[in-house]
Amino acid sequence: MENNNFTFSEWADMFASEVLSEKLIAYQNKRKDLILRYSKALTKLSKVRADDFSLWFGKYWLKIKYGDDIEKLEKKIKQFSNYLYPKPVSEGMITDQEIATAKAYPFENLIDLNAGGFAKCPFGTHEDARPSFKVYKKENKFFCFSCLEKGDVIDFVMKTENKTFRETVKKLSGGN
Length: 176
Fold this sequence. Notes:
alpha+beta, flat, about 55% helix
């Protein structure tokens, strides 16, 4: 079975904006409902006569019960809102899509790796008798076991080519 790892934007492009707008409204309503229930539960808890620890524990439990769900909904709401109502991009600004594309740029196009994903450290801060620079292909990140440098493909190009973040993202995403 093929594993399709689409970005949110790619999924969103497959659906009509009306469907996405309806989903956004549903998430907003669900968030309002959860916040209302959380608020009511806190009000009830504040009226209970109990020791300080029991009150603290009750508040903590409510935060766990409702907080994670509210946080997840807020992330979805932000994601849908940003897609449906994008902020205007100023000339020269980098978009989230360009950053995502740059982060997905394969290390193999930048450095020769052995079968285990190792190479000699390209940063020149130490001598390698054996390759100490490891590329984790699934995460598209690197770590040098000698000099302890680490990061993603954007960090790698910034460090090896002495480029700014903007220049690096433009280069890796195919921009100018």
